[in-house]
Structure formats: C-alpha cells, structure tokens
Write a structure and sequence with these properties.
With about 425 residues, this protein is mainly beta. The chain folds into two domains: about 1-35; about 45-410, YVTN repeat-like/Quinoprotein amine dehydrogenase (Methylamine Dehydrogenase, Chain H). Helices cover about 10% and strands about 45% of the residues. The chain has helices spanning about 1-10, 10-35, 105-110, and strands at about 55, 70-75, 80-85, 90-95, 100-105, 130-135, 140-145, 150-155, 160-165, 170-175, 185-190, 195-200, 205-210, 225, 230-235, 240-245, 250-255, 260-265, 270-275, 285-290, 295-300, 305, 310-315, 320-325, 330-335, 340-345, 350-355, 360-365, 365-370, 380-385, 395, 400-405, 410. Strands 18, 19, 20, 21 and 22 form a five-stranded antiparallel β-sheet that branches. Strands 1-33-32-31 form a four-stranded antiparallel β-sheet, with no helix packed on it. The chain is globular and about 85 Å long.
Length: about 425
Amino acid sequence: MTTVKRWFTSPASLFLLFSFAVVIGVSLVLYLNERHFTKPTVRITADNVDQLELIIHLRVYSTEARNRWGTEIQFSDDSRILSLSTLDGAMVWDVIEGRKLLHVKHDAICAESRCESLSRKNWPPPNSHAQDVSPNGKWLALGISRADFNDLQLWDIESGQMVRSFGRNSGLQALSFSPDGEYLIYTSQDEANACAGLCALHMPTNKYLRIGDADSDQLVSVQLDFTADGQTLIYSAPDGIHGFDLVTRERWMLIENPYPVISLDLSPDDSHIAVMNGIWGRTSVHTSVWEMSTHEILFEAPQHWLETSLMQVAFSPDGNLLITSSDAGSWVWDSRTGIQRHQLEMGNRWFQFHPEGQFVASKRSQNVFIHDPLTGNLIRTFNSDNYFIGDQVAFSPDGTMLVTSEGEIWGIPQ
C-alpha cells in the first residue's frame, strides 16, 4: 500500500495522470464538437409550432468574426447537408449523422489561392462573400471578397478537398447551382479567367459557357432565378430582365427596365415573375409582377423609399401570395390582384416561407418571428443567441428544421 501511495504522489506519476486527463478532455471536446445532435424528423406544422425547441447551437464563428455581419444558410435538396458561411469561413454538416463534414477557413482559402497579403491586422475579411450547395449535396461553391483579393472555389464536400479555383474576381455578384445541379452559374470580371462575364460551368463535362459579357457595369448586382425544370436561367442586367436557355443557348429580353434590379422571384409554376427595382438612397422602390407568357405587367405594388439594401421579394410556395420586405416592414400581397393583405412587423430583409407555405420566418436582432401569412398573425417568437451575426433564417426543404444565422437549429424534439 505504501508503495502504491508513493507512486501516485511522485512527480512523474502526477505528470502522467495530468497528461492522461488532458488527452481525455481534448478527445471529449472534439467528439462533442463533431457530433452529438440528432436531426429533427417531425415536420413543423400549425399544430406543433409552439413546441419548437433549440436542438443544437453549432458554434461556427470564431471570436474575431463573431461581431461581423453576414451569413448564408444553404441546404441540399434532401435536407441532409447544411452549410453556414460567414466572413470567418464556411462549415458543412451532415445533419442526419450529426457530424461536421467540412470546415473551410478564410485563411486556408487565401493560402490555397496564394494570397500573400493576408495579415491579422485586416482579419476577418471586410467585404462580401457568397456560397451555394449543389442540390445533391456533393459540392460547395464558395466565393470570397477581400479589399485586395477575390476568388471562387469549388469544394468536394465528401473528400474535403478544393477541386477548382475559378480565378480572381469571380463568384461574388452572382453564384447559384441550377435546380438539377447540371450548371453552376457565377460571375467573373477578369478576362484572364477561363470564362469572363456571367458564366455557367457544366458540372458533368467541366465545360464553360459564357452567358453575358464581362463589363463590370453589367455585373455590379446580378439577380438570378431558374424555371422549375432548371433549363431556363432568368437574370438581371442594366437594361432589364433576360432569359437564357441553358440547352439551346438562346437568349432573349423578358422585361425592359432601366433601373437596377434589387430582387426577383419566379412563381412556383413559372407563370409570373416579381421584380423589385430601385437605386439605394436615390429613388423610391417599386415591385411589379409580370406574366411570363405575354411579358405584360399584371400589377405594381405601391412605391416606398429605399434607404438600405435590405430588400426582398418572394412568392409563397403555392404562388398565391407575394411578400415584399425592407427595413421598414414587410407586406403580404395577393399575387394575382395586387391587393395588400397584411403588413408584417418583421422589419428586415431576411425572411423565408415554410416549404408548405403555412409560415413565414424572419429575424431582427436577437428576435426570431414566425407569422401566419394568410392572417398576418404573429404565432411564435423566440430569442436567438447573438444579433451581431446576421438576420438570416432558413427552413430545411423537408420542413423539419429552422436554422438561424448564428448556427442554431430549432425543431420539434423527439
């Protein structure tokens, strides 16, 4: 007994015990960071929305980036792959297995692209970013903008490897996979790149397709949408809204309009398009709904002054309602008649319809709101973690999760 006691109190044994405890502690932290949450499987409905609980908070932000605005939330079509990108980088999760698949940090991105000017004094990156996840959850397209460096990169989510760099000044004004995953649409302002202008990469063949020219004035703010079959791209240009057939390569003018397009959205059946036009701080904003077949205007919503860039327009999943949003508030319209149905006190751009259309979620500062778009009633509100990160929220495609820009996953507990 004396020998055992002497061994446990000796400096060497205490050091070994301390080292063992550290290893166990670090392993436990890594394990908990990589896993330990279960994806909700119950769809959020009117009957259970009051039961929404915080399932997990994915801590995806470093201390340095925590107070920087700007987050994008993207899901794969099957709701399995979740990507959250901020000015700090991007994290991709398999929410069914509850594990992190990929963590791309901006310093790693810059190193991959030989950005020698990176320094801690100008960290995190001060400007914009963009991302999109392919519908099948295989690819992450990630665009980064710095004061002295821009790039667009394609990452293989499963292997965790970057497989393509599109070159400088790419992917920041527009970035989107087509609904069928056949094409990656992006912008590039450098003629030295493989494609310059509004471009499309055909994913199966790795061939580039140039859709629009590389004039920087043409690419300041490009708004994109696709028809439901993924064959036709709808995009904005300084002279109006254009259509482009990705199969036949035919291009045509849909709507002539000299004002910049802030937001656009196609109705679910592709019969109508909603367009929001204006110049920030200089003109009033107007939203108009057009018939796709005749290219004629159906109605125009009343104008209001645009003070910031926080504007969005979107159809409900059944196409019967239209929501326009700004810092001043959000309005619900009958998409066929243009009659205003309600005003929602959301007060920010970021909103999203539930896949079945029975809710619309939004976020302002630390508050998350869930409204009934048919009645305009606020049916649920709760507090998010940190209002400095951003004001984006997103429902998963299967309707079981609500994700905030802080990386919080809300759902119905099992």
